């Protein structure tokens, strides 16, 4: 599927989450204004200061972009990008991003710079490219979605970031502290590829980002190129073994571990034992409660992501 090229005159409607990101929100806004004003590009900044405002503001941006033949742009971490993408998906509107998070897996995958000023300049010449989106019970995820231990890791990581600042080292330290505590095992039934499988596991993670999968050493990353998603699960293990898995992931060798299983799929249904109706999940770093069973699929409609010209793209490292 191809996307219609942009003329370079379309206005930007920018949803900026001022409550997330590495940098000062006022500075980020000033940078965006300076770049776009200097280029003579029309735009409207639509800042929000909490996650609860994201959905309604994203819908408003979609409406404005539809009325004015414009582009919806999300500025924030992967969770913010995912929330705005939820509103854009299926509208046919082009979608741009200004990454502001700690890891920025989604933007880095497509060579979009993490520096706000450079990323804003790249928007001016970017063209839409169809990219794959994952859905969990109909909700968008761009990088990954998970249940069990992983959502707990994310909740603890956010608490540590609030206390010690946003950095990858703070995230790693938070993970080590979380893994030291005892964790319950999930009893789940998986249905995929015409088969059923029962298992006990501390966590299930479904990935939609080749860069993240490659960095932790999951061989099935190439399944994404075939329009599929990748599931990862861990056998019941103690805290010491979990530390070993973190180390393997740090060394890009997680897929070699005996305790880890991974596979590609087109559709995955996860049923939780004991008739649980509501399940805590993490989607691109944000916590949600969803009804069981959980259904993971690739969206039948791709997202028209604005990708910079080849010469402006950054390395995926």
Automatic annotation (TrEMBL):
GO terms for molecular function: kinase activity. PANTHER family: SPHINGOSINE KINASE (PTHR12358), SPHINGOSINE KINASE RELATED PROTEIN (PTHR12358:SF54). InterPro entries: ATP-NAD_kinase_N, Diacylglycerol_kinase_cat_dom, Lipid_Phosphate_FormReg, NAD/diacylglycerol_kinase_sf. This is Diacylglycerol kinase. Pfam families: DAGK_cat (PF00781). Residues 7-140 form the DAGKc domain. Keywords: Kinase, Transferase.
